Automatic annotation (TrEMBL):
Protein name: Cupin 2 conserved barrel domain protein
Coiled coil spans: none
Domain Cupin type-2 as annotated: residue spans: 43-106
Pfam families associated with the record: Cupin_2
């Protein structure tokens, strides 16, 4: 549940906590705590050719990407679209989606979720993925469920 933020937050260009998971890094500029649960904002860096996250659904929050660098392919409910620098991608809660960065340039995009918690989910996933050995998909699924996300398989997914 969110309350009302009462303090301004100014984050310098290199500020924010960087978290690596799913082969990507997100530098969280505005966290759940900083916004009193209103939103989360991060700058994601995605390696060239990255397959992106598994196909998933956010049950409690909308997600917005603003593409800064790279050539993205975004899949929503099995339908693929191109998104390059300057593109805005709005993903309402409840829609299965994923993305990948095509070509030989790394991708960079702002990611905003309008209900907090994405930063916590990402940090918990990073901890699980840092364990030795192959990823434990049952653990990752439980982490996702605890944060209102579901991994799904949709037509057209890679």
């Amino acid at each position: 549940m969110s309350s009302t933020a009462t303090a301004a937050v100014i984050v310098p260009p290199n500020g924010g906590r960087a978290v690596k998971a799913f082969g990507n890094e997100i530098q969280f500029k505005l966290t759940s705590e900083a916004t009193a649960g209103a939103l989360v904002l991060g700058l994601a860096t995605i390696p060239a050719g990255s397959a992106g996250p598994p196909m998933h659904v956010h049950d409690h929050e909308d997600e917005l990407f603003i593409i800064v660098e790279g050539d993205y392919r975004v899949c929503v409910e099995g339908n693929w679209s191109e998104a390059g620098p300057g593109s805005v991608v709005f993903l309402p809660r409840g829609l299965a989606h994923t993305f990948h960065v095509a070509g030989d340039r790394a991708g960079k995009h702002w990611v905003l979720t309008n209900a907090a918690g994405f930063d916590r989910f990402y940090a918990h996933s990073a901890e699980a993925l840092a364990q030795p050995g192959a990823p434990d998909f049952a653990v990752l699924g439980a982490i996702a469920a605890a944060h209102g996300y579901r991994y799904v398989r949709a037509a057209g997914a890679v």
